[in-house]
């Protein structure tokens, strides 16, 4: 017979348990504080921006034209210009990027050409935006004779975001288990049908996430657009959504902020912060659209 | 006793991935409506052989295949309609793969991709396949739930139902029971006995006893070579022609 179990002992913590619980608490605390350390600056920055911008913020601010040498009034031309640039560049870059990634991940054979292309894509993703700007200037503005225009700037932004979209889409596609594809092929389903009905529906969230991240980049970059399409000031019809044409020059928020902060004296401080808030707002707006699309696709899996 | 025209005839089949030869020329014939067992340890080329049979090996870029496979006397490698050919071969993988679709869509996936649109026709086919795979009774009230939510054994039967959905003439099962429990395995084995009436079955298995229970004839592969092929009873009774077979079936190695 074994010894009767001492119940009191069973409910007492042994030193090893005490140590484990202590370590557990420490680990939890460290990771929590790291999370806070990440979130806190973000909240502070946004809060600071909104606080500083408060005197200038209003709905009119967005829909009004700049007045008095851009020292007063609103930001409508810049706001609309940024929307144009972001949306047009994504409409160019997203389909091309996704289709290129599908080819590279699903069809391309593993040979030196594919490997070179993959390497090029990764390296292009790291090229500084000012280099893209010069490329855009040479290729679109001069060589293609587009002049400084919305289309040239959008194409430049598209060239800049394309490699990243390709890379993130490839990542999302390769996350779909190989066994899904094999199961589909085994049933005599063609490659394209497999991609369309199995691979893409299962990677669409990841693909959209990659594209969403590029929205912020396209909206925030000043360098690529300042030689190719964005100007300091432009007059457009007020309260009109389609005020810009593709070949027009436009204003853009990032550029506008740069101009106001560095080129024009005696600008009220709150105006600069208000532009920053508006820029943040545009990014959040486009992100919100993409996120709701993602949620919609996730709940309606069949397509 | 080999019927006059074999359902499937394999002649001097060789497979290599790059420089690595995995199948060194094997030949055999399977008459219609027979369960043909394939046994052999890992790396013996069983799965590669199945991938050649349904021609999905063509998706592996560096695979080299030579030899000949005939189905009903027709050269399988020369068939122009490879998708139509693959439909004639059902394939069940070792690990159950529930496609992330509803149970219904899992089974209706292949027929739809061949253009079957009629709802009644699809409904009937889905029910028939699920019944054949002994899964209908368990899922008939939740055909709209995700196939991936089923248990492992149910998913494997879903895989079988999917393989049946394109009404194959030859059904290949690649170690279908390694991920499922014995009770489900027995259920599926009963299913196979019934399916034999309407199709030819190639049963790749690591369970020597499973081959003994089901297969009329069995083939023993070792390192890509055909060691022996013959009546299952003879192969497993201990007086097989090749001593290696006797060793393998008695559990001496493998």
Helix and strand arrangement:
The complex is a heterodimer of chains A (303) and B (254).
Chain A: H1 7-10, H2 15-53, H3 59-63, E1 66-67, E2 72-73, H4 76-107, H5 112-125, H6 129-143, H7 150-174, H8 178-186, H9 191-220, H10 223-226, H11 253-262, H12 269-299
Antiparallel strand pairs in A: 1-2
Helix pairs in contact in A: 2-12, 4-7, 4-9, 4-11, 4-12, 5-7, 6-7, 7-9, 8-9, 9-12, 11-12
Chain B: E1 8-17, E2 20-30, E3 35-39, H1 46-53, E4 63-71, E5 74-75, H2 82-87, E6 89-92, H3 103-113, H4 119-132, H5 136-139, H6 152-164, E7 170-174, H7 182-195, E8 200-204, H8 208-214, E9 217-222, E10 225-231, H9 232-236, H10 243-249
Parallel strand pairs in B: 3-8, 3-9, 6-7, 7-8
Antiparallel strand pairs in B: 1-2, 1-4, 4-5, 9-10
Helix pairs in contact in B: 3-4, 3-6, 4-6
How would you describe this structure in keywords?
heterodimer, A: 303 residues, mainly alpha, MetI-like fold, two-stranded antiparallel ribbon, 72% helix, flat, B: 254 residues, alpha/beta, Rossmann fold, six-stranded mixed sheet, four-stranded antiparallel sheet, 25% strand, globular
Question: What is this structure, in a nutshell?
Answer:
Chain A has 303 residues and is mainly alpha-helical. Helix content of chain A is 72%, strand content 1%. Chain A has one domain (75-299): Orthogonal Bundle (MetI-like fold), CATH 1.10.3720.
């Amino acid at each position: 017979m074994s010894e009767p179990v001492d119940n009191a002992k069973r409910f007492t913590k042994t030193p090893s348990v005490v140590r484990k619980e202590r370590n557990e608490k420490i680990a939890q605390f460290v990771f929590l504080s790291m999370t806070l350390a990440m979130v806190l600056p973000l909240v502070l920055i946004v809060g600071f921006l909104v606080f500083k911008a408060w005197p200038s913020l209003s709905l009119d601010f967005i829909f009004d034209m700049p007045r008095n040498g851009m020292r007063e009034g609103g930001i409508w031309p810049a706001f609309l210009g940024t929307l144009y640039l972001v949306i047009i560049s994504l409409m160019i870059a997203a389909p091309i990027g996704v289709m290129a990634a599908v080819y590279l991940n699903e069809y391309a054979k593993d040979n030196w050409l594919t490997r070179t292309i993959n390497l090029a894509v990764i390296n292009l993703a790291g090229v500084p935006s000012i280099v893209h700007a010069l490329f855009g200037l040479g290729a679109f503005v001069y060589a293609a004779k587009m002049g400084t225009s919305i289309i040239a700037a959008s194409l430049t932004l598209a060239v800049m975001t394309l490699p990243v979209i390709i890379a993130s889409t490839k990542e999302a596609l390769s996350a779909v288990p190989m066994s899904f594809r094999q199961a589909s092929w085994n049933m005599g389903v063609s490659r394209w049908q497999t991609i369309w009905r199995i691979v893409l529906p299962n990677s669409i969230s990841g693909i959209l996430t990659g594209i969403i991240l590029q929205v912020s980049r396209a909206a925030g970059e000043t360098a690529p657009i300042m030689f190719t399409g964005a100007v300091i000031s432009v007059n457009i019809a007020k309260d009109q959504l389609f005020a810009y044409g593709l070949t027009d020059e436009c204003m853009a928020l990032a550029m506008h902020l740069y101009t106001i902060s560095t080129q024009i004296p005696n600008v009220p401080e709150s105006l600069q912060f208000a532009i920053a808030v508006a820029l943040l707002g545009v990014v959040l707006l486009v992100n919100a659209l993409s996120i709701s699309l993602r949620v919609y696709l996730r709940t309606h899996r069949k397509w | 006793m080999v019927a006059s025209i074999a359902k499937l005839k394999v002649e001097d089949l060789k497979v290599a991935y790059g420089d690595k030869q995995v199948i060194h020329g094997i030949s055999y014939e399977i008459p219609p409506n027979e369960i043909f067992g394939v046994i052999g340890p890992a790396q013996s080329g069983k799965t590669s052989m199945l991938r050649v049979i349904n021609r999905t090996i063509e998706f592996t870029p560096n695979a080299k295949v030579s030899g000949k496979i005939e189905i009903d006397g027709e050269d399988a490698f020369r068939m122009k309609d490879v998708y139509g050919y693959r439909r004639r071969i059902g394939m069940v993988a070792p690990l159950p793969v529930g496609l992330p679709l509803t149970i219904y869509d899992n089974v209706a996936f292949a027929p739809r991709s061949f253009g079957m649109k009629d709802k009644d026709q699809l409904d009937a086919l889905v029910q028939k396949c699920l019944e054949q795979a002994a899964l209908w009774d368990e899922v008939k009230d939740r055909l709209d739930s995700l196939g991936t939510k089923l248990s492992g054994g149910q998913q494997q039967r879903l895989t079988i139902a999917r393989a049946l959905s394109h009404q194959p003439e030859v059904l290949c099962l690649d170690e279908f029971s390694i991920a499922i429990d014995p009770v489900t395995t027995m259920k599926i084995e009963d299913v196979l006995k019934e399916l034999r009436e309407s199709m030819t079955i190639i049963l790749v298995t690591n369970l020597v006893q499973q081959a003994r229970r089901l297969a009329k004839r069995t083939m023993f592969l070792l390192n890509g070579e055909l060691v022996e092929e013959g009546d299952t009873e003879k192969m497993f009774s201990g007086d097989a022609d090749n001593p290696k077979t006797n060793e393998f079936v008695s559990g001496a190695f493998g």
